Amino acid sequence: MTESLDARRPALARLIDHAPLFPPASLPVPDAIAEDRRARADEHAWMLARLVWPASQLDGLEGEDRALSILLDAPFRGDPRAEAVETRWEAGLEGVGGEAYVELPLGDGVEEKIAALAERGLRAKVRCGGAEVPAAQELGRFLAACREAGVPFKATAGLHHPLATAGRHGFLNVLAACAFGDAAALNEAVELDAAALRWRGRAAGPDELARVRREQLVAVGSCSFFEPVEELRELGVL
Questions:
Q1: For 123-165, how does the pLDDT look when each residue is reduced to its tens digit (9 = 90+)?
Q2: 109: left (phi over 0), alpha (psi -120 to 50) or beta
């Protein structure tokens, strides 16, 4: 996987925002740091993006040289390692700027909320699992609204599996729904190989996948780095 034209590279590069402190892993701080270091040393570390870390526990990362996405669960005075911040719509948007991902509730009004983010140059965040798994229709509505408003997003919670099955979404399916502009891809078989991402006889090649990752699906939050990597191996993608 060293060729620049390998479609797996733009599809998967810097895809995983590593969140080992968060459920279901919920590792203690020392173990979370050790797990992230292990991920950075792995042969597939090119798939690793930022370390997601709460503002309330930044003291535990003192001296760790790592690109961060800071969850704003407490006052945040800035950190030179922070490349992005994450917050919730309910917390308000006052003072939020830069590369900021705002978690939105799905359902009625999602288009208006995404339009408001677009006006402020902010990004969206969607929860795909956890306590509740959104219906494909709800998730598809979110994806369409982001696409139409030109708002990049990250997806998190329950999205550490490549493919969708009953009761869960898959990150390759979300990527396909973005690439082909069709929410039906959220529930159907998709494939990724060196040439393209494929669905229903259609193919998205390296250039299109790079555009989708840049303009739409920026990252996937996962408490585990190794679980999605192993599943991609089992599928023959890696």
A1: 999 999 988 999 999 999 999 999 999 999 999 998 999 999 9
A2: left
* φ/ψ of residue 126, rounded to 5: -130, 140
CA–CA distance, 232 with 39 (Å, rounded to integer): 15
> Phi/psi at 201 (nearest 5 deg)?
80, 0
Ordered DSSP codes for 96-122: --SSEEEE---STTHHHHHHHHHHHT-
In whole angstroms, what is the distance from residue 110 CA to residue 39 CA?
Answer: 35
Instruction: Say which residues have a Cβ less than 8 Å from residue 195's Cβ, sequence separation at least 6.
Output: 7, 203, 205
Q: Of 182, 112, 102, 200, nearest to 144 (Cα)?
A: 182
End-to-end Cα spacing for the chain: 8
- In the chain, alpha helices (H): 8-12, 29-40, 110-120, 136-149, 171-180, 206-215, 226-234
Distance CA 93, CA 87 (A): 9
Q: In whole angstroms, what is the distance from residue 191 CA to residue 175 CA?
A: 11
> Smallest Cα–Cα separation from 126: which of 25, 218, 213?
218
Q: Among residues 44, 50, 88, which one has the least CA distance to residue 69?
A: 50
How many alpha carbons lie under 13 Å from residue 176 in its C-beta half-sphere? Answer: 27
- φ, ψ of residue 136 in degrees (nearest 5): -60, -35
Q: What is the mean pLDDT of each run of 10 residues along the chain (238 residues)?
A: 76 98 95 98 98 97 96 95 98 94 95 98 96 94 98 94 96 98 97 98 98 98 97 97
